Amino acid sequence: MGFLAVLAAGVAGFMFGAIWYTVLAKPWMAVSGVPLNEAGDAPANQSNPVPYITSAVGAILVAGMMRHVFVLSGIDAFGEGLVSGFGIGLFLVTPWIATFYAFGARPFRLAMIDGGYATFGCTVIGAVLTLF
């Protein structure tokens, strides 16, 4: 049952990322510095499977560790998972992203977009984990 919960939560986090970055595609491309295709409307590596595979595996790994923390902490209610996931994303993941970007002289807006995904992606993962 634990593996199924982790897999479902990871997939939900990955799917949330697809929605997040579809909605924020234009501002993200503008501030990320990612090379664009000839039309200038999508990343040049859009058809490369590596970023998508990396993202999916990463979401499953995050879900697995979050489940471990939830079990150790006795987090098993939907509201607890939602709030705990939000806290993990906002107070653990996003500060690391902001630190990396600050030292890398990356735009603050990029840290906000990517940190937002980390925060709300972990929120989704936390909520889904408590459904099992």
Automatic annotation (TrEMBL):
Q: Which InterPro entries match?
A: DUF1761 (IPR013879)
Which residues are listed as membrane-spanning? 49-70, 82-104, 110-131
The alphabetized UniProt keywords are: Membrane, Transmembrane, Transmembrane helix
Write one Pfam family the protein is assigned to.
DUF1761
Q: Which domain of life is it from?
A: Bacteria
The protein depicted here goes by the name DUF1761 domain-containing protein
Upper classification of the organism: Bacteria, Pseudomonadati, Pseudomonadota, Alphaproteobacteria, Rhodobacterales
